[in-house]
Amino acid sequence: MIGIDIEDISRFQDKPEEFYNRLFTDEEIKYCKSNKNPAPHFAARFCAKEAVFKALSACDINIPSYKSIEILKKESGAVYVNLPQNINKTIHISISHEKDKAIAIAFVEK
User: How far apart are alpha carbons 9 and 58 in whole angstroms?
Assistant: First the structure.
């Protein structure tokens, strides 16, 4: 199954900490805030979470919250998905951001 999402980066600009804490894990927040402009990174990770959520929903798999889907980065720069242990699926993901938009696509293997 496939999921895709696109977001305006401005939605993730200068939000209160509660906003980020509700959607992102500590590791995701740490990574995004390590960048000069965190908003594109938050937006891209949110797109990735939404794309994964959509793809898993199409497989009849329920995700309890956005924080249950963690988008992490390998040393190589590639992103990957960390899911709760009870969800045994392989997910391929790609994210990108440019100017005022962020986008992500997720593919869940059957």
Answer: 26
